[in-house]
What does this fold into?
Amino acid sequence: MKRVHVLLVTGCCLLFCGLFIGCGGGPGSPGSHGTENTGVILDVSSITPVYNGANTYSVDAVQQVCDPGPPPKIEFFADHDATVTISARLLNPNTTFTPGTLYIEKYTVEFRRSTDSIGAPPIEKIIDGTVGMPLVITPPSGQGITSFTTTVLLVDLIRKDKYLADIQSGIYNSNILNNYTALYTFKGKNQFGEEFSIEAQPAGFQIGSFDNCGG
It folds into this structure.
């Protein structure tokens, strides 16, 4: 058994709070585009990594045999996901115009090595991810704020396997435990065809060999 090694508009951004709070956008926020045309302000209020039903920032890249048996007990091994919550409020709470429904259709995830893991393998960017999509955002009325939640990919099995292969190749730092950050960009359009994107910068996660055998 292994052991633990363990906007949609004018200037709007939530600061990081805790390990994985996102920031969202309007004009002037890095990575946000076209948001001023929708009449709605969207914020990525949180992104929380989740694995096997629990919130965790520890991404397991090594599947182990928990008990040789017989029968053998194999460690749970799957994509590591993240729960994202996006909030919506009107740009002008006193407007008589009803903004169109917004549809977030896809996302990208860019992985960046932390300063203490520069020698670690790169993790390939997720392009046009659709797991958990579309996310339908219904604008609130007046001063109201509505929130919408879905589950998206963080590190899938393909990237876990590639990470382990790269570590074992001898090309990169042989330390299996490394730190990264993931930069999410969500893209979509409203019912009138106005396109937009919002960016959220989560804090770091750690990838390596973690004990998920359950005792």
About this structure: The longest strand covers residues 178-190. The chain has a mean pLDDT of 85.
